Predict the 3D structure of the following.
Amino acid sequence: MYLLDLKSKIKNEKRDIMKLKKTLTSLVLAAAVATPFVQYSEINAEEKANNHLDYIENTLANHGWDWNGINGYEALDLANVYWNHIFGHALKGEKPKDILTENDFKNEAVVYKYEEGFEAQTGDLFVMENGKNGDGHVGIVVNTLREEDDKTFFVLEQDWLGGGKSKKELARYNTQTYDYEEFGQMYFIRPLK
């Protein structure tokens, strides 16, 4: 008799536990539906810029970067180290100008063609279609505080002076101009994170 009573109590407790599980599941689902979903891409723009700037200043600046092990410290190598830091992979292309045609930036970045009035943001990549030798040029926008002419911005770049192949030109700060007509159209690639 005692054994039958014990079996009955266990059966009732199992039933109560199942009811409790159903109630808890309903509560969790209700809470999930009531909680607004915040996408990662809604990261604060100032926080994003500060994160990029910290990496640029504390890791990239004043070092030589040879991502692919070919031709020394090329401009594209610096861009690849930076992009890999953000997204875990390099950009496609053999030359800086290839970045614009060989990459699908969906879910990673927005590409802007420079037009009058556009202002770059800290952390953008800038790409010159031609650069000094026809291969294009790329670097990282560091600061968008313009000087009096309203056409300049500050960057981190390497191989602008041609010392990359010999590994004498480290990633350095420089000023670039929005309207370098002789170096082709200027584009800006703005990472979404």
In short: The first helix runs from residue 2 to 34. DSSP finds four helices and six strands in the chain. Residues 24-42 have pLDDT under 50 and may be disordered.
